[in-house]
Design brief:
This protein is an alpha/beta fold. A hairpin with a 4-residue loop joins strand 14 and strand 15 (295-299).
Length: 683
Amino acid sequence: MSGSLSGSSVEDNLSLSPKLSPPSKRQKTENRTTGNCSTTNSTSGSKTQVKTTMSVTSTQNGSQNESMDDIDEGLYSRQLYVLGHDAMRQMQASHILISGMRGLGVEIAKNVVLAGVKSVTVHDEAVVTWADLSSQFFLREDDLGKNRALVSTPRLSELNNYVPVTANTLKLSEDLLDKFQVVVLTNSSLDEQLWVGDFCHKNSIKLIVADTKGLFGQIFCGFGKSFVITDSNGEQVVSNMVAEITQEEEAVVACLDETRHGYEDGDHVTFSEVKGMTEINQSEPRKIKVLGPYTFSIGDTSSYSEYQRGGIVTQVKVPTSVNFKSLRESMADPEFVVTDFAKFERPGQLHIIYQALHEFVKQNKSLPRPRNKTDAEQLLTLAKAINKASPSKVDELDENLVQQMAYQAGGDLAPMQAVIGGIAAQEVMKACSGKFSPIRQWLYFDALECLPDKADTLLTEDTCKPKNSRYDSQVAVFGEDFQHKLSDLNYFLVGAGAIGCEMLKNWAMIGLATGPKGHVIVTDMDIIEKSNLNRQFLFRPWDVQKTKSSTAANAVKTMNPSIKITPHEDRVGPETENIYTDDFFVNLDGVTNALDNVDARMYMDRRCVYYRKPLLESGTLGTKGNIQVVIPNLTESYSSSQDPPEKSIPICTLKNFPNAIEHTLQVGRGRGQGSRSVGQRSV
């Protein structure tokens, strides 16, 4: 991210039609900004002038060597292992509109651009304010007063040369929406959501609504009347050896009991190599019902021959059609995805409270003020009235939850944007590709556990009020004292890959290590490769072959110049204990792992246990992820539970730091079978 932005200044203006189609790929990066388009309408008896102002910046990228059907496997290799070529081609044919370029909108746009869709148009009518700087990582203090979409566009366009990025600053219209396959709304009013939802549902346009308010988050998905899911989970098909098939109307299949069959209710299977009951070998895929870990039923086999021996049962991916209700219908009759079963009743409560918040903004032209009791009481009154009239009303409204929403509604937190934005971006990918099961249809999330135990005593309206600081939207939730503590923390980040980049971005946004005593040390011995650019968003094509840690450190310094960060290129292990000494660990406030192997994780865990330091542990594999928070004297350590042995070797270790006999064998096997086979073992 260091260095100047590509393309010309967003100040350069050209003229474009208001009915702008999404851009197509071009060979070179170019920047286009429209001027103003005015129309005047006259009505009898009065003079009415309607002026429409439009400003659009389009950065168009592409390569003359790449046709629309080509996929750059060097760039998208890791993503292809998860999605497959068919889903990737579906994405490359999809135009996406993302409305709202605050922290949540830019998080979604960043992820969607990296994913490799055909084009992205970002929309926003508003200008940059101090409150935006808390989580919008592509805005700078110099951008105050400029349009958010115009400022964000050239910085988003750097993420992927294959994805044209366009800015639009007009009011949303049906003519604009009609150009896209997927529309994402953030920071929008309920009235806007409803009319956009009606139009999208009628015209088979997929709609995603996403929003965050302090420690609360919301996502709605409406993918139309007949949305086809080609693969509900993305897992490899499962095959098992057959031990027995009964001959009856509700036949039971028993698998060999060495391993569990791994099927779920509703899966479809086919049979082969069955002896005796040979008719089943040619039958169509059968829907199953799981009876146990080794048995399932397949329906009627009473007319078949008697089973003798053998056979293989194989899972089959069968496309399914799903009917999504419109936003308006779903408001009255919602379906919820429960994110925390300890808060089973919470989604219904938040469904009402969010509607009340929209009504509050409609009446007052602003969100409730942080920790203001008068505004909280007004929101509670509105929530009670809406709940009483709602077809989906809850039995008893949680008044404390309403109060917390009022207190935090002005908050804008980078970690919350990362969570909700990441989920929403995955829903965009599902909408484009038909791969994986979408959210049906509402997801509500809250992280109120982040508040201190005595929040109502410690936090006041005075300590949470805005002061024209880039951290205003965070102070609105946690107060001034918390911000000062964050700024003086000393943290050690081990790894600057995909998770490491996201962690550093969040740290820069929340103001970690920006005070006189604060400091971040990041270490990573890897260098940047082309395949990293698809998910490690702090790196750009011109950074290939540079060190990850130094490049990432420079990138987050541009996001928040106040962060104090030092990059290292050292492996963590016994051989570097002369660098990461006793004094080094004693002075830390915590450690965060962003590693790619268990051995390094266990080593860092032992060090943190010895020095009694908190450890944040996380990892991803395809669409799966895990997080573990280790607190001294409170939780178990990482090594307290045994992970299964690694079945593969991380590809970055093979390429840059092979250090074991099995690494040499894997490299040799890859050269013999082709580099692609090595990659497939290291998603």
